[in-house]
Write a structure and sequence with these properties.
Elements: E1 3-7, E2 10-12, E3 18-25, E4 32-39, E5 46-51, E6 58-60, E7 68-73, E8 78-83, E9 92-100, H1 104-110, E10 117-118, E11 122-126
Parallel strand pairs: 2-11
Antiparallel strand pairs: 1-3, 3-8, 4-5, 4-9, 5-6, 7-8, 9-10, 9-11
């Protein structure tokens, strides 16, 4: 069974840092692009970042560019989202998602893909 499990969320003060993990199982990890999304109460789901299935092509939302970094460790079947300089408006449930394909070329030319599989989410709260 294909499964994505997020972890690493929690409470952090403004200006602090947090690293989220997305652990994948049940599929050939390096055949899939991985994305991070977030959703705050009363707001629509927002795409945060994505990374291609190979060769490390990345895209970031303007709201997080320069503060967040997405990376993947295929040996561990895990994608990370390093979040620095956190702001209260970053508070949300963060989800990872997988899309088959999502090559360097398709992401470079078409942007982040549409996702087929989703994790359960992890809560990030930024507050003093």
């Amino acid at each position: 069974q294909l499964q994505l499990v997020e972890s690493g969320g929690g409470l952090v003060q403004p200006g602090g840092s947090l690293r989220l993990s997305c652990a994948a199982s049940g599929f050939t990890f390096d055949d899939y692009a991985i994305g991070w999304f977030r959703q705050a109460p009363g707001k629509e789901r927002e795409g945060v970042s994505c990374i291609s299935s190979s060769l490390g092509r990345t895209i970031y939302a303007e709201s997080v560019k320069g503060r967040f970094t997405i990376s993947r460790d295929d040996a561990k079947n895990t994608v990370y989202l390093q979040m620095n300089s956190l702001k209260p408006e970053d508070t949300a449930i963060y989800y990872c998602a997988a899309a088959k394909g999502g090559t360097w070329w398709t992401i470079a030319t078409m942007g982040c893909p549409k996702y087929e599989y989703w994790g359960q989410g992890t809560q990030v709260t930024v507050s003093s």
